[in-house]
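Appendix C reproduces, verbatim, an entry submitted by the partner laboratory led by Prof. M.T., so that reviewers can inspect both the input and the predicted structure.
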Amino acid sequence: MSPRASTEECDLAIVGAGAAGLMAGIWAGRSGRCGGIVALESARKPGAKILVAGGGRCNVTHQVVDETGFAGSTPPAIRKVLRAFDVARTIEFFRAIGVALKTEPTGKLFPTTDSARTVLEALLRAAAGAGVAVRPARRVESIARDGDGFVVAGPPGTWSLAARRVILATGGRSLPKSGSDGHGHLIAKSLGHSIAAPVIPALVPLTLKEGSFLRALSGLSARVALEVRSSTGKRLISCEGDALCTHFGISGPAALDVSRHYIMAKHDDPGASLWIGWLPGETMESVDAMLREAGRRSAAGVLRDRLPERLARALCAEAGADPAAPAAALPRQRRRALAAAAAAMRLPVTGDRGFTYAEATAGGVPLFELHLDTMRSRKCDGLSLCGEICDVDGRIGGFNFQWAWSSGYVAGTGVDV
């Protein structure tokens, strides 16, 4: 059915029916203070990001979530919102709407059905039960003040909605096909907010120089240590976890986690670099000693104790060391080159795969522009914001969903109609 050209009226318009928007709608409806709630979703179907998250399983949250797992706005501000609706309350909320969660060895929580659709359908049922009318294919082009309320409008001549209050839950710029194409940032700015710059992809795979030996190892996974360094060599941030070599570069949890920090560092300091250690906890000197003390064991054999054979041989080739030669007999220059390659190698990063492949957005509306006990705007009376439109991005593992549940809850319960 095509949108109506006439103007409807409601108490609360929620722009965006993703994780944060649905959560806000559910709790606004349950508060009993809103006579009519409409959630406007630009995509043809709501919850597209929920359905693709976690490989289609939806990593709902993590067993331990606190402000240290996030970047963007200040830790105390993020902590205040997270504590208002923590992991325990999240688990209970989903149990109450029919979604049992299980904790995996990584600490990630998934629905016991292993299906993201279970999560989305439960949220939509809960939203309907709370009196939220979800309207798909309703792209909001503009929001303008109108007396004490707002006029929310679609493309010219199509539809408009008169709302007493508005919650912006449009998302950032990641996965634009899902509807979060950055237009929400423009709307927020039109209503008096600023956008923390730069706005960059977060949790995004990184591309490596063509010809890099790592691209030839596509499909290989290993536990690594990744480190961002400034142009002066200062260590800025490090993380340890699994990385995946791909035909274009590097992905996997560790690479995704470090990506926003590398991109941000590169923005501020073009000489910043990313380094990988294939043997976490080891240094060049300790690996060199390991090779020297290996006796008649081959160089590749020593590395194979802790690395996949393909990678062990590739590191030998990169260092110009004979993989079959006794490690202790390698020429000093080759042995130390191999030790350096295994302990800390600079990655020839050429860029990233962009918002199309990013799981989150770094940058957005700063939390200092919001009242954190309600998520109401300090710049525009009657407006609230939640979810990824805020300048908050978490590491992989359910952290960004937890931010959506927490901030959506605070925004929904904080609406003053």
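The first strand starts at residue 7 and ends at 15. Additional entries are available on request from the coordinating office.
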